[in-house]
Specification:
- By secondary structure, the chain is mainly α.
- The chain is built from 15 helices and two strands.
- It has a two-stranded antiparallel sheet with strand order 1-2.
- The longest helix is centred in the N-terminal third of the chain and has 20 residues.
Length: 292
């Protein structure tokens, strides 16, 4: 491996907290590019432009990923003073369309919550657990893995926050709604012993697969199509409904644990009429027109 690539990967691990799989993917993309153009650290824009032909048979999303890895590499070289120019502009820029996430309406979420609340009456452990899981998925926007692997220590006694460890080992504070706090209190009173909040047999925690199953079973009992309900769909609903309510995109980025705000921007497909109304109400020129 070229020493410059090695230094770049070390930076990803140390400064950005990139996961091992992410670093391995960057390493593969950079090594494969080096096989085509030679020494990446000294490659010219003309040399990098030839990668368009090398990548011609790949999907646009794959080309975009490979080009992004190289652009970040050259940005690192410039920042570190290892190169005076940045040839990254010569790399192809394929247009990719990210599919919009599946969304549950407010009524559909309410149907799920209502069903879970009914089944939690009487404080049966299974019913209370389902309610707590649902409230945290929709009320805090947690990823499935983050939720099932929460240690008991992540739940403070006197603060409405959870300490969550997300992708790349990055920790963040996630607010917990009053409803979720109430569900958690009920769950803490009936949960089995173990170091995980949602403990299971053998000292382990509830699995992601089981969480998926539980949600789909609840959806059927709530009269919803099970294929429309999953932990990720509830995370999407959390994000979209917050934006609809006027949440700031940067705040949402923090709550979701996204490293790049570009990832968060997928949620800006909110009600167009609300956005038009917002501009008409808040834009300085709109207010000036009212004054005139």
């Amino acid at each position: 491996m070229q020493p410059e690539i090695d230094a770049f990967l070390a930076m990803l691990a140390a400064e950005r907290g990139a996961a091992a799989n992410t670093i391995a993917a960057y390493c593969r993309d950079l090594d494969q590019a080096a096989e085509s153009v030679g020494d990446l650290a000294t490659a010219s824009g003309e040399q990098l432009a030839t990668l368009a032909a090398v990548w011609s048979g790949l999907a646009p999303a794959t080309v975009a990923r490979k080009a992004s890895a190289l652009r970040q590499f050259y940005g690192f070289l410039v920042d570190e003073g290892l190169r005076a120019d940045d040839p990254g502009n010569a790399l192809p820029r394929p247009t990719t369309r990210r599919p919009l996430p599946k969304i549950l309406s407010h009524d559909q979420v309410e149907a799920l919550l209502s069903r879970a609340e009914i089944e939690a009456e009487g404080d049966s452990p299974a019913g209370v657990r389902m309610l707590a899981l649902l409230e945290l998925l929709y009320g805090s926007g947690l990823r499935a893995t983050e939720l099932v692997s929460l240690p008991l220590s992540a739940v403070p006694r006197d603060a409405p926050f959870l300490t969550v460890t997300g992708k790349g080992g990055q920790a963040r504070m996630v607010p917990v709604s009053r409803r979720a706090q109430a569900a958690l209190s009920r769950w803490l009173a009936v949960r089995p012993e173990g170091r995980f909040l949602f403990a299971s047999r053998g000292g382990k925690h509830l699995t992601r697969v089981r969480l998926f199953q539980l949600l789909k079973e609840l959806a059927i009992r709530a009269g919803l199509p099970p294929e429309k309900v999953s932990p990720h769909v509830l995370r999407h609903a959390f994000a979209t409904h917050l934006l609809e309510g006027g949440a700031d995109l940067r705040v949402l980025q923090t709550l979701l644990g996204h490293a790049d705000i570009v990832t968060t921007q997928i949620y800006t497909h909110v009600d167009a009429a609300r956005l038009v109304a917002l501009v008409n109400q808040r834009h300085p020129l709109a207010r000036a027109g009212e004054a005139g």
